[in-house]
Amino acid sequence: MKPQTITRFFDHLVEANPAPETELDYVNDYTLLVAVVLSAQATDAGVNKATKALFQNVRDPAAMLALGEAGLKQHIRTIGLFNAKAANVIALSALLLERHGGEVPRDRASLEALPGVGRKTANVVLNVAFGEETFAVDTHVFRVSNRTGLAPGKTPLAVELKLEKAIPKPYRRHAHHWLILLGRHTCKARKPECWHCPVVNECGYNAKTTA
After folding, report:
1. Is 197 within any annotated ligand binding site?
2. Which domains are present in the chain?
3. What confidence tens digit (pLDDT) does each residue in 39-55 have?
4. Which residues, 6 or more positions from 92, have their beta carbon under 8 angstroms from its beta carbon?
């Protein structure tokens, strides 16, 4: 996709949604981190349902450790891989207290050193909590980047690095949210809904659909 096309692409996304936000519910940086860890291979809606009661009382690492792994499992048992995720959340909570005074660190290396936190999760936390210009490549961003021709790549990291180079400064802060929301609600996996897509004219996908 040419630079001028990319600019038009994001101009249309801005027009459709000037201030995109994560669809995960959270109350502070810590609960955001927990929610993102829980969202791996799960829907945001499913995570929000599971954390609604949890986050009413558990909003910091100390409270999570007091709840314990068994107690956490009772809250998140409807989420896929909940046993492993519960173990990771308890372990990362302990490390936050041990290494970071209970605060969520702002650097990638420290985040990725936490159990259950990979590059994508770190990118989300850095972007949403701290305003960093990072590009979290989930399945939606990967699909949209390849299908539209915005940043084609064979791996999430390859797509991320291409997005890093391609996206102009004015759009970088919210770019991954625009792409996630586009993929989740319009540029769907089985059948993209091209007939109401705001970037249909900039998109390089050949097999565009009609309603």
Report:
1. yes
2. 3-20+135-196 (1.10.1670.10), 29-130 (1.10.340.30)
3. 988 899 999 999 999 99
4. 33, 37, 114, 115, 116, 117
